[in-house]
Amino acid sequence: MAAPTQGEDSDDAMDEFMEKFKTQKYKNAFSESNWEEEFEKVPMFMKTAPESIDPEKHPDLACIQSIIHDDDRTPEEKARGLKDEGNDYFKEKKYKKAVVSYTEGLKKNCTDIELNAILYTNRAAAHFHLGNMRSALNDATAAKKLKPDHIKAIIRGAQCSMELHNYPGALQWCDEGLRLLPTEKKLQELRATADKQKREAERDARKAKVKAKKQQNEKETLLAAIKERGIKLLKTEPSQRRGSDSEDDDGDRGASRALADLELDGISSQEATGACVYMDEQGVLHWPVLFLYPEHSQTDFISAFCENSSFMDHLAVMFGEELPPWDSERKYQPQNLQLFFEDPEKGNLYQVDLEKSLLNVLQHQRCSVKAGTPSFIVLVSGSPFSKQFLSGKKVQRLK
């Protein structure tokens, strides 16, 4: 048996639809008493058109009439109709639709300058309520260009400038308007506010400049202190700097080169704390320091390690009475630990004397501070992991 065609399916559906009304009445059908009256309301079946068409009573007929006779209207009439339409949308707070109507009105290119100025001003108001301040300002400017004494456009231009924090521009708009209408209260209020906020913005700018200068001076003082100590800073990957300094280089040349182009964020820690090296009132440096425990994939971060403190001072606190939960075998006792730093150029490890100060280690010619944070590897002396980790690596002990 052949499958039914699409036409047959449609016929079956229509038959079912019509069959249904043998048992139930169609709810929206015309009654026998009013069908002629209802037909008379349909434009296609009207015997005579009403003398005046009320869009509320005859919306379909008004729409058809508008389409038929639109070409007969002048550009001014079309633009004015679209302006009224936009105003209706604006009253209903349908600002996007209002923008569309005003835009279409402007596209009619009518010669009525005042009407075009109103269209621009009204579109500026709609843009303003949508938060499109730049577009609103452009429309207010266009309206004022067409009609220099258009106070509404001038007020809107001042308001947009205020929202854009362009206080000098707002003052200019207000002054132009007040020359035309000195008693305009809205412009007087806007000017007073713009003048106040302009002075506040200038004050804040001066404060920011002083603060930036202070930070710059602090940065230069800090960098000078680091350079004076002979500490090398790295702001690039080790591979990019490999071979830049000779083995017997005292570090001054490398430090000078790094410090010359080092920015403040170059000595800021990349840790989540955002801690960075600082100098206290006594001229002592305090560094953020990272301890790495490769055996357990753990780390410790000290935000302010005084350069004069020894490593044992911190390890004794970190691994004192309360050991970390990841040290289940209780191996990380201060007396059992070894500390190393890695030479970023050679890849060699240097073992640190735990009794030495941080400054003493950082001053070593093969030690470099990367990303503003000195880092050290911590191992348990003689442990199987330590032996495996150090195997194949060149390890030197600091003198």
UniProtKB/TrEMBL annotation:
<dbReference type="InterPro" id="IPR011990">
    <property type="entry name" value="TPR-like_helical_dom_sf"/>
</dbReference>
<dbReference type="GO" id="GO:0005829">
    <property type="term" value="C:cytosol"/>
</dbReference>
<feature type="region of interest" description="Disordered">
    <location>
        <begin position="191"/>
        <end position="216"/>
    </location>
</feature>
<feature type="compositionally biased region" description="Basic and acidic residues">
    <location>
        <begin position="191"/>
        <end position="207"/>
    </location>
</feature>
<feature type="region of interest" description="Disordered">
    <location>
        <begin position="234"/>
        <end position="254"/>
    </location>
</feature>
<feature type="domain" description="Cns1/TTC4 wheel">
    <location>
        <begin position="280"/>
        <end position="384"/>
    </location>
</feature>
<dbReference type="Pfam" id="PF18972">
    <property type="entry name" value="Wheel"/>
</dbReference>
<feature type="compositionally biased region" description="Basic and acidic residues">
    <location>
        <begin position="234"/>
        <end position="245"/>
    </location>
</feature>
<dbReference type="InterPro" id="IPR044059">
    <property type="entry name" value="Csn1/TTC4_wheel"/>
</dbReference>
<dbReference type="GO" id="GO:0030544">
    <property type="term" value="F:Hsp70 protein binding"/>
</dbReference>
<dbReference type="GO" id="GO:0051879">
    <property type="term" value="F:Hsp90 protein binding"/>
</dbReference>
<dbReference type="GO" id="GO:0005634">
    <property type="term" value="C:nucleus"/>
</dbReference>
<protein>
    <recommendedName>
        <fullName>Cns1/TTC4 wheel domain-containing protein</fullName>
    </recommendedName>
</protein>
<comment type="similarity">
    <text>Belongs to the TTC4 family.</text>
</comment>
<keyword id="KW-0802">TPR repeat</keyword>
<dbReference type="InterPro" id="IPR019734">
    <property type="entry name" value="TPR_rpt"/>
</dbReference>
<dbReference type="GO" id="GO:0006457">
    <property type="term" value="P:protein folding"/>
</dbReference>
<keyword id="KW-0677">Repeat</keyword>
